[in-house]
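A common beginner's mistake is to predict each chain separately and then try to dock the pieces by hand. The better habit, illustrated here, is to supply every component at once so that their relative placement is modeled jointly.
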Amino acid sequence: MNLRWAPLRQAITLRQAIKLRQAITMTLSDSERERYSRHLLLPEIGVAGQEQLKAARVLVIGAGGLGSPASLYLAAAGIGTLGIVDHDRVDLSNLQRQLLFDTASVGRGKALAARERLQALNPDIDVQAHEIRLDAGNALDLLGRYDCVVDGSDRLATRYLVNDACVLLRRPLVSAAIHRFEGQAMTYVPGGGPCYRCLFPHSAEGMVANCAEAGVLGVLPGLLGALQATETLKIILGIGAPLLGRLLTFDALAMQWREFRFTRRVDCAVCGEHPTITGLQPDRRRLSPAELRDWLAAPAARGGAPLLVDVREPAEYRLSRLAGAVNIPLGELPGRLAQMPADRALVFICRSGGRSRAACDIAARAGRRNPLDLEGGMLAWAQAVDQALEVAPYDPRPSDAATVGAGP
Amino acid sequence: MITVRVPSPLRSYTAGAARVSAHGASVAELLAALEERHAGMRFRIIDEQDRIRPHIRIFINQSEVTTLTQPLAPGDEVHLICALSGG
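With all components supplied together, the output reads:
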């Protein structure tokens, strides 16, 4: 036991639970002793440690760039129960970095395809495929079935959901994220240090592009995902010094790792002294293209026509827009919300739903009741309602210096 | 002169540069100097109420910045850290 872990021992019930399970059922078979022989040689692991890994239950959020290497290494390392949650399907563009899948997997459900691959790698473990979209309604139940959570999701909203669920459930969380050539990672252990919200207090969806929007070096999640697997094994085994209160950043171009210390915020909304988040709130209601189409076709049925606010940049708006939509780029929205009629429903629109989500957050914080947005944005509208619509590409360099938007 | 490390989501403002230099005796002065050279960049870091945006953290060398009045010394390295969402 590393001395740095000693103050955490009281807070960590995870390892006690694993040890209890290990004591009841977890002995290694002959083939397992051979499979894990290089672990067994390490005094920090040995037979007892390997049995702890076998008794452990780890949930990987997202079978993507990070989830692929993380789950492959965790399966190979002998994590006894490994859950994979992902509602998406394998796309050809995933194969540049998501090593769980091959060309034959394209079109298959990711969770099930991942399960097959991981089970083939290690038939001695139990791999659970959760082919669901993680949300406020199912997160506590699902995460509560596991000892430790690895976050490899591709949405900021999911990152906050997972963080909040882990804090509420007192589950350790190993978090990582990537962007172009850059990555970052941190670990949360209940009672042992700050959480993700202590680092970044609330979501800035729409200001932070994901891999599909910004691109990513294929090998980058390999490094960060392997790091997540390493942290997870250390937490389960209780060895080494985890990334508690330490944000590790990686710049692949400069080939530099850096570490930044941060502390728990006493005013953190979920792990602070007086938390305001004591349960998970359902995602804000979003309009599907069909719902918005029907509303616009028969406004009286919903109490009148909404004000459509297109929060894209002017150049995007000029190319195509919904009839009647006004253009207020996201960066100008806070200063112009007061100009909008208070008695009219607001529906925010952008290219693919990131900036409009941020606009809803801004409007809600400013006191507007029930702001709505078009899920999937103009791209979804073009697909579902108006196939002839041409949607302008997003230019990451805002045309207006005062504009915030960096999302889709 | 202060060296500023720019995270990739903000590099559209620095013509792709990961590292830029600017003068400033405090974080606020440094951000003002950055804004002069890289128009629009400050607003991506600081909100309308002059607060550091919730998805941004600023570190001087390895110490966290909590207020914009925090002093800077020549040779300091300022790191702008942005929440990343990709997975």
